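Allow me, if you will, to draw on your knowledge of protein folds for a short while. The matter concerns a single protein, recorded as an amino acid sequence and a row of backbone structure tokens. Kindly check, if you would, that the fold set down in the tokens agrees with what the sequence suggests. You will find the record immediately after this paragraph.
***
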Amino acid sequence: MSLDRLAFIAVLAAMLAACAPMRSTGCASGEQALVHDSLIFGTGKPRGGVVTSAEWAEFLKSTVTPRFPQGLTVSPASGQWRGADGAIVQEASQLLQLVHPDDTASERAVQELVAAYKAQFQQEAVLRVKARACVSF
């Protein structure tokens, strides 16, 4: 391959790389490409009892809201999962839905609130479903 041809390919590759941030997100006009996180927090405590409504409200106020002050949605839920010991556990849960930018700060904030919940309420896990979404307000 000639040097001219290699130079052309290198310039073309650089131009395409520069255009990468401008590629279409697949979202329609008026929509933003954001992340939609669904987090499911079990309320059963391993030593008995449950996370009370007051404890959950305080967790939202002191841990979640400071990290996601732009908004969130919470719904009561019920479900089941298999614990590390193989037993099926059925329990009431809280479904927290967050829509946020796909950035390091938001990712860190989600990880921090999951870790805080697990530590505060001795939880084995918090289910996280993370998806890219086209959002309009």
User: Anything to note?
Assistant: The chain has one domain: 26-135. DSSP finds three helices and four strands in the chain.
